[in-house]
Amino acid sequence: xxxxxxxxxxxxxxxxxxxxxxxxxxxxxxxxxxxxxxxxxxxxxxxxxxxxxxxxxxxxxxxxxxxxxxxxxxxxxxxxxxxxxxxxxxxxxxxxxxxxxxxxxxxxxxxxxxxx
Length: 116
Description:
By secondary structure, the protein is an alpha+beta fold. It is 36% helix and 14% strand. It contains four helices and four strands. It has a two-stranded parallel sheet. It is globular, with a radius of gyration of 17 Å. The protein starts with a helix and ends in a 6-residue tail after the last strand.
């Protein structure tokens, strides 16, 4: 969470297709998650290539082709980053993440019906 003096300047958040939880069709097995978290503590900067299916990003075929051809979309993350992403998704999904001053900030979240 950002410091209070920064949060005081923000009037709202716009979240377009944010990662809240990994879709059940693409979730790693529990053993992969546990082993990955342990290995991330030993070699956190170790890079892991995990191909992202372009069809999960958009139903528009031209967007999928653009994603696949974009050299900046390299499907690579560090074990530390991937473990953190899974942990934050788990916090959101389980309700363990609590917003103290939710009344003072507006939040808009948008997802499509077929988002993965």
